[in-house]
Amino acid sequence: KAGVTQTPRYLIKTRGQQVTLSCSPISGHRSVSWYQQTPGQGLQFLFEYFSETQRNKGNFPGRFSGRQFSNSRSEMNVSTLELGDSALYLCASSLADGAPRDTQYFGPGTRLTVL
Amino acid sequence: AQKITQTQPGMFVQEKEAVTLDCTYDTSDPSYGLFWYKQPSSGEMIFLIYQGSYDQQNATEGRYSLNFQKARKSANLVISASQLGDSAMYFCAMREGYNTDKLIFGTGTRLQVFP
Predict the structure, then answer these.
(1) Which of A20, A23, B35, B86 lies 20 to 30 Å from B45 when distance is taken between CA atoms?
(2) B50·A103 Cβ contact <8 A
(3) Centroid of chain to Cα A73
(4) CB contact under 8 A, B52 and A109
(5) 3 state SS of B85
(6) Strand, coil or helix: what is A83?
(7) pLDDT (tens digit, 9 = 90+) per residue, B71-98?
C-alpha cells in the first residue's frame, strides 16, 4: 500500500507570495493532519480534516488555511508569506476509526523556503 | 495543559547496546495515547510504537519497547541492540482522547549510534 505523498517536496517563494501544498493520504485513510516543523518552535499542529471538515485547528494565524476533498486528499495554503514561514510542512493521515490505537502516518514533507 | 517533555537533547550509544530515551507527559484527560516517532535526516516521521493510557502492559514492537509508568507520567522508549541505522531524531508525542488526531510533540532527542 502506498504511503502518504506530498507535493512538491521543495519550494522556494518570496515574501508576500502565497503557496499551496498538497497531500494524498494512504488509501482508506479518512483523516489528514498538517504540522509545521521549525528549528525554533519544533513540531506544531496546524489543522486536521475529517470528511471534508476541519475537526481541529492549531494556534496559527488566518493566513494558514486548508481543505480536504471528497477523496480525502488535502491541500494547505499559506497566503502573504513571511520569512518565518520557512519550515518543513508535514502531512499525516489516519483511519480515524475512533480506536485508541489509531495511528498517524506521515509523508516525506514539503520544505518551504521563503526569501 | 497538555505537554510532552524530552530532557535529553542528544544521546550517544554504541552499536549493539541498549539505550533509553526519556519522555514525560502532562495531561488531565484519562484517555490518551502516547507515540514515538523516528525522524531520519531525510525528514519523514516514521511511527515506531504506541501506548494507550488504559493498556495494562508495556508496548513492544521488535527492538522497540516502551517503559510506561502511568503514575509518574513517563513513557520512555527503549531501543535494544542499537544499529547504525538507528541514528536519527526521536520524538515522543501525545494525543488526548480518541476523536482527534492532534498530536503534541516533545522537542526530540538526537540519537547517535557509533561503531
Answers:
(1) A20
(2) yes
(3) 11
(4) no
(5) helix
(6) helix
(7) 999 999 999 999 999 999 999 999 988 7
